[in-house]
What does this fold into?
Amino acid sequence: MEMTKRTWLLVGLLAIVLAACAPGSDAFAPDDRANFFHGVWHGWIAPFTLIWQIFNSDIRVYEPNNTGWWYDFGFYIAVISGFGSLALSRRKQRTQRRKAG
It folds into this structure.
């Protein structure tokens, strides 16, 4: 039981941290725009942000106050690498099951 409480506490804390760094939260102004590294971060948390957007309509998946091409590049690199690694992980598990079975 103790492990379950810790796990849920960690998941809750992680959700709060990720939601606090979500794009579209008025953290960026026109004179202080999101850059490449913010784009990478927003790309990594995009799946969580999409779910969080259901509960808070002020949150967006993509930060509109950004530096342009570099933000886009970081965002798409993170999204592609994140989803690509998930697919690679599933493929690896499938291959291991076939070898074992």
Notes: The chain has one domain: 2-100. Residues 2-100 form one domain.
